[in-house]
Amino acid sequence: MPDPAFRPAQPLPYGRQHITDADVAAVAEALRADFLTQGPRVAEFETQFAAYIGARYAVAVSNGTAALHLCALALGVGPGQRVITTPLTFAASANCVLYCGGEVHFADIDPATGLIDLQAVRALLGAHPKGYFQGLIPVDFAGLGADLEQARALADEFGLWIIEDACHAPGGFFVDSEGRERRCGSSQLADLAIFSFHPVKHIATGEGGMVTTNDERLYHRLLRLRTHGITRDEASFVNPGEGGWYMEMQELGYNYRISDINCALGLSQLSRAEAGLARRRELAVRYDDAFAALPGVDVLAPGRPGHAYHLYVVQVADRRGLYDFLKTRQIFAQVHYIPVHRMPYYERLGWRKGDFPQAEAYYARCLSLPLYPTLTDEEQDYVVACIREFLAG
Ligand SMILES: *Cc1c(COP(=O)(O)O)cnc(C)c1O
């Protein structure tokens, strides 16, 4: 039985990093090593992350947004290109298209999952001549794997590439039509997938991101774009080499590198990723059980296999009231997301309230509750008790 007198020792955010002594030691070791950046820990993190996710190649970058930008560049997004994504995501999933001069279009969500509604995508594709759209960016919202089998079929039919935004779902999967578990970000069905290592995500590096792919050509392009468009690979030189120092800038790239210091932390965190995921799922089951008996709280996709639980999302009628009430109890819930098309910048591009009614209805009622590996059972019981108290009015 929960202890009614329990009060958490610290405020409870919706998400937070878990840093151990081993993490600190790994970073200290990196600081004393020969390379602070462009050293062996970057490649090691890429290799181990690719193995964890089940992709052939991985390219570590400075953050998840840079990962998205590089993907859009590598796939040739530019003026006149049109890309479809979900309005229920972090702005970066859409912004990457605009960085490259392309056009963003949205398809509404499936309210049962918060994922992009592939029927709505099909309707949008069907309303234009073939070739009008070039790409699709599904997002594994909250940790639910998008159905990339269906997305791939649609993409093949209409000639689209796919970038899976898997920031919420390292270790997650969706179940395909033959009952197979398909790991999020494995890029078996997407062309490219991206991850973020911001501290609220499963694996923290401070700032950091990753692109995964099974496509060797895209992999080499991403490596070059990450470092100014410069290559030192002799086999790919355009001009004759002029000596050991020689390198070539072959296209306009960026400095989107990540440091060895960040990757030392990433490697240490990655070694605990499965344990963290298991704890998230355990906490999710505890929330599911508590809310199953609490009318007025709707849980998003409870018990769905493969859910990686970046977020634990509930929907309530008086979301604002609950948000404010929890704050007075030192519980800092969060809203994911204000739909991208409702942002003033996107409104200036022509999007309006009412354009994506499912995403807007979802936004009106959603709240992400505290969920992270170090959240204790007592703290979680306290969150549930506070919600119960609020609903009892
Ligand atoms: C966190 C996140 C990003 C951006 O990652 P950063 O590392 O913060 O740049 C992109 N998409 C989604 C869905 C995210 O959650």
UniProtKB/TrEMBL annotation:
Entry keyword Transferase: yes
Active site: K201 (proton acceptor)
Top EC class, one word: transferase
Tree of life domain: Bacteria
Keywords, sorted A to Z: Aminotransferase, Pyridoxal phosphate, Transferase
GO biological process: one example: polysaccharide biosynthetic process
GO-annotated molecular function: pyridoxal phosphate binding; transaminase activity
InterPro entries for this protein: DegT/StrS_aminotransferase, PseC, PyrdxlP-dep_Trfase, PyrdxlP-dep_Trfase_major, PyrdxlP-dep_Trfase_small
Modified residues (N6-(pyridoxal phosphate)lysine): K201
EC number(s) on file: 2.6.1.92
Family membership noted in the UniProt record: Belongs to the DegT/DnrJ/EryC1 family.
Protein name: UDP-4-amino-4, 6-dideoxy-N-acetyl-beta-L-altrosamine transaminase
